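Structure tokens please, single chain.
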Amino acid sequence: MEYTEFVRIVAQQTGLDMEGAERPTRATLETLAERLSRGEARDLLQQLPPEMKSWIYTETDPQPFDVDEFLRRVAEREGVDVETAERHARAVFWALGYAVSADEIDDMAADLPHDFAPLVAEAQRRNIRVMPAEEFLAKVAERAEVDAGGAARATEAVLETLAERIAAGEIEDLLAVLPVRLHAPLKRGMASGPGTAVRMRLEEFLRRVAEREGVAPEQAREHAQAVFATLREAVGEEFFDVTVQLSGEYRALLPPP
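Here you go.
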């Protein structure tokens, strides 16, 4: 594939002009080079246009950062916010799917942690839609009848408390299908928990949500219902894997089938 064709694909996916599309392309590939093993980076560069080879070339060992740090670095290099970097990085991975063989894309995927799944899916032409954070919070606001700030506080409080309740493996699966802006509360909850699913009565769950959100328990219940309904809409089948770990009394928070 020619360099201009690669950048044109990124431009089409992002709505940028050709010059503007070069920035996220370079930022994404340079950051990817920091995350991949030297061997995998070299395998990739062999299939990329000559103009891009220096961006993916590396002589250092891979740095074990997660997708949040990956996108933070892309954003810093590109000079944009993380949400924009996420959208641009997906476009670059989409272009990689045209430029690089399917086998090599699979090798790259094996070199990256699970939370890179939405980016890798672009290159593999698999359909993983990540609901944008703005859309998620707007739906919570509508369902809970709160403003944007209230929706953000409710969402963070519920997700952090949920992450204290469920197993680390399910939290990691959620991280792979939720927007980066919603990762922080899940990671906080996971860090404070034991890594396995723990027993927590619904009353205690709502008490923690209320305390974190700064509202009364009854409001916390209504807000939790709004967040859970939006979570099911956002993550699809993964929602069942999360809620199957919750006891029967949590049905009061869950949306009907």
